[in-house]
Design goal:
alpha/beta, Rossmann fold, six-stranded mixed beta sheet, three-stranded antiparallel beta sheet, 9 helices
């Protein structure tokens, strides 16, 4: 769609015509006054020979007015996501995440594979949000800073391997690192989703100390305890497997920060948890619509330059022809 930013510039179109008429009337008045002064009996008729009409100046003036009107082309509307929704994901990579106690389609698979599969769906559905990824075991490190590049976040999660950061579980370090990263953001809703299957057994920061920092920073923490409670063996006995999940700590962290604790014992329950998180922290629907615009004022200016060049070339050729004829 074309639009002119300053359409009032077209009011200047008749200006050369008005100036030409005004100039002619002034010249006529001067000639009549001079003739009457020298010979009152002289009747003025044809004052001067009419100038030869040329359309080129009018085209140049028209192009100049069009350029002054600042023509623009507006493209198709583009939806831009709203800013401000930022979620940090903290995933446990301790050895216990290798435990194959998560049932899916009749088979038992390891916890980390289930977390990756389900969390990948959650990541791809967060269009418009910024996500970051923290991996933790013996300590915690930032795998991906907060970004809208969800493809990269999903890829980094997929490439995460057990033992990459050690064997233990540093919940306090993961929480502290999230506090540190959110401290760099002024306008943020500051949400952390922490997934673990154990209890804090390593790290430089105790979970209780990290919890105080998270509360002071206004970070809302949703904790997810991953892993089945028990599993039947071949003889029908129930056996506790994997690491001991510190549900009391995870519940306290979630409650004190305004979040919520979830227990994921299988794939279906983990999927339901992410659906609940979508409801608790819905994707923003206040998207902004913009239309890309392209300025086109340079086109009439280019035509003016081209006409002036052509006119100069034509005049030069005429001059050369007259000289050669003489």
């Amino acid at each position: 769609m074309f639009e002119f930013a300053w359409p009032f510039a077209f009011l200047l179109l008749p200006l050369p015509l008005l100036l030409t008429k005004l100039q002619k009337s002034q010249q006529t008045a001067i000639v009549r006054t001079t003739a009457l002064y020298h010979n009152p009996m002289v009747q003025t008729g044809s004052i001067s020979q009419p100038a030869r009409f040329s359309i080129w100046p009018w085209i140049i003036w028209l192009c100049l007015c069009v350029a002054l009107a600042h023509p623009k082309y507006y493209g198709e509307p583009i939806q831009l996501p709203n800013e401000g929704r930022e979620i940090m994901l903290a995933v446990d990579l301790s050895t216990s995440m290798r435990e194959q106690d998560m049932q899916y389609q009749g088979q038992y698979i390891d916890r980390l594979s289930v977390v990756k599969a389900v969390l990948n769906e959650f990541i791809t559905a967060r269009t418009g949000d910024r996500l970051g990824l923290i991996l933790f075991a013996d300590t915690a490190f930032l795998q991906t800073p907060l970004t809208r590049d969800l493809t990269t976040v999903a890829k980094m999660l997929e490439e995460a391997q057990i033992g990459l950061v050690g064997q233990a579980t540093a919940i306090g370090d993961a929480l502290g690192l999230a506090v540190k990263r959110f401290a760099l953001k002024d306008d943020s809703n500051r949400i952390l989703i922490l997934l673990t299957d154990g209890q804090n057994t390593a790290g430089n920061l105790a979970p209780e100390e990290a919890l105080i920092l998270a509360k002071d920073a206004g970070i809302k923490v949703y904790t997810v305890g991953v892993g089945a409670d028990s599993q039947s063996n071949f003889f029908g006995f129930q056996m506790q497997r994997g690491s001991a999940l510190d549900e009391s700590l995870l519940t306290e962290i979630a409650r004190e920060t305004g979040g919520q604790y979830f227990r994921a014992t299988d794939v279906e329950s983990l999927q339901r948890i992410y659906q609940m998180l979508d409801q608790l922290e819905p994707i923003s629907d206040n998207s902004e619509t913009v239309r890309p615009q392209t300025a086109l004022f340079y086109i009439p200016l280019f035509i003016i330059v081209l006409l002036l060049f052509t006119q100069t070339l034509v005049n030069s050729l005429k001059t050369l022809r007259l000289r050669s004829g003489a």
